Amino acid sequence: MGLFKRKPGRGERLGPGEQRFVVVPRADADSYLRPLATKAGDRVSAPVAAFIELAQHGAYVAVVTPQRSGEAAAAGWLASTAAKLGYSTRVCEFEDELLVDIADVNAYLTERLEQFHREQTMGTDWFATLSGTAAMITTTVRAAPYSPDTVELLAPTGFGHDAHVAVCSWLINGLRASPEAQRRMDTGAGEITDQELSACWMYGYYLRACENALPAGAREEFQKMETG
């Protein structure tokens, strides 16, 4: 498993796209990943920008409904909470200097966001571009996470896809077992599969990447939305 965290005495290497990584034995991986999952869960209720909260609440529509029709209240809540968990995971992964020691910056993604907005690929405004790009990346990473064609789009990869899948699984299982989730599901208000919840988690994870890659013009537009 490749991790970007530097450890004394372990050789640093270059991966696809000349990304730095350090190989960590699988037996040691849990010592990194479980604290990350715990931090992400603790942070899930932390305040975020209004446009990010709106995008998180739209996770079901952005990720799940293209695959099926209809929405139920419980399923929508689970989907948005999974997206919040994915978002908070990326925040914790890159902002804690003890975990990943590189900045969560992707100039290539910024260029793609600018292109999508200019060509109105995802919609006519920056919100549609932001949420649509996060959904597109989610589809891409779930289909071909190791493809050389996606290296620039997914950078920086932090702990790596295998680690993200493990953290996602732990958090989704915890979400399923939470009293609030049990209360909502007991009403029979709707079903959502673990695979769909994992997609929502990935959507939230890459929503954070897209937020960090927003160009100046988009940030100004969102700032105006925040201030009314």
Account of the 3D structure:
Helix content is 64%, strand content 4%. Mean pLDDT is 84; it is low at 1-12. It is mainly α and 228 residues long. The longest helix has 23 residues, at 73-95. A 3-stranded antiparallel sheet has the order 1-3-2, with no helix packed on it. The chain is built from 11 helices and 3 strands.
List keywords for this structure.
mainly alpha, 228 residues
Structural class: mainly alpha
Rounded to the nearest angstrom, the radius of gyration is 17 Å
Element string (H = helix, E = strand): EEEHHHHHHHHHHH
Intertermini distance = 46 Å
Biggest β-sheet, characterized?
3 strands, antiparallel
Secondary structure tally, helices = 11
Number of domains: 1
Strand order of the largest sheet: 1-3-2
The total beta strand count reads: 3
Strand content: under 5%
Helix content: 55-70%
Shape category: globular
| Overall residue-averaged pLDDT value | 84
Topology:
Layout: E1 2-3, E2 12-14, E3 20-23, H1 26-43, H2 50-57, H3 59-64, H4 73-95, H5 107-118, H6 126-143, H7 151-154, H8 161-177, H9 179-186, H10 194-213, H11 216-227
Antiparallel strand pairs: 1-3, 2-3
Helix pairs in contact: 1-4, 1-8, 4-8, 4-10, 6-10, 8-10
Write a concise synopsis of the structure shown.
The protein is mainly α. It is built from 11 helices and 3 strands; from the N terminus they run βββααααααααααα.
